[in-house]
Write a structure and sequence with these properties.
mainly alpha
């Protein structure tokens, strides 16, 4: 039953994550954490962090990690295939019709109207990741007295270095990991 639940959850994610991997994060969170309660928010936060750092699309990486965490190798296969199937079928269908009707002005209007929705989904994913990192909570559960000071300092420092000095993002990620490990290692909080 768990495998069927995972498969259909990721078909749902693959079907409605218009705009790429980051748009899928809120959908995965809703399916895995909120609806089916297969992971906690803290586990999901860790999953998103690892999925971002791993090469490849974040939605596929997330599906792979959720599948492994909840159901082992069979979960990996079903979650990954479930996430890919809708996109594959939709792309084949749209490619056929796009080449056939690409000069029609209505097609350009529909594509233009999807852009704001994609931006909103990506912004939602960014806000969710930020809130998970700084408060270890979802956007509607934020309590400002529970702010994580170390993470806030690393975030602000990384943002300043990235914007002012134009340092490579990989260097920022590695540096943030080192600083966090040192701070928590020296304070004994790990």
């Amino acid at each position: 039953m768990l495998l069927v639940k995972l498969f259909f959850s990721f078909i749902w994610v693959g079907l409605f994550s218009v705009g790429g991997g980051y748009a899928a994060i809120p959908l995965i969170q809703e399916q895995i954490v909120t609806i089916h309660k297969l992971m906690t928010m803290e586990e999901f936060s860790d999953l998103v962090t690892v999925a971002e750092m791993t090469p490849g699309p974040i939605s596929i990486n997330s599906a792979t990690f959720v599948g492994m965490r909840t159901a082992g190798v069979y979960g990996v296969l079903l979650c990954t295939v479930g996430c890919i199937i809708p996109s594959f079928c939709i792309c084949l269908t749209l490619a056929h019709y796009y080449y056939k009707y690409r000069t029609v002005s209505g097609v350009q209007i529909v594509l233009g109207s999807l852009r704001p929705a994609v931006v909103a989904l990506i912004a939602s994913a960014g806000a969710s990741i930020l809130m998970l990192g700084l408060f270890q909570a979802e956007l509607h559960d934020i309590v400002f007295r529970h702010i994580r000071i170390v993470e806030l300092g690393i975030f602000i420092g990384a943002l300043v270095i990235l914007r002012k000095y134009k340092v490579n993002a990989i260097t920022i990620i590695l540096g943030s990991g080192i600083v966090g490990t040192l701070v928590y290692g020296l304070t004994g909080a790990i």
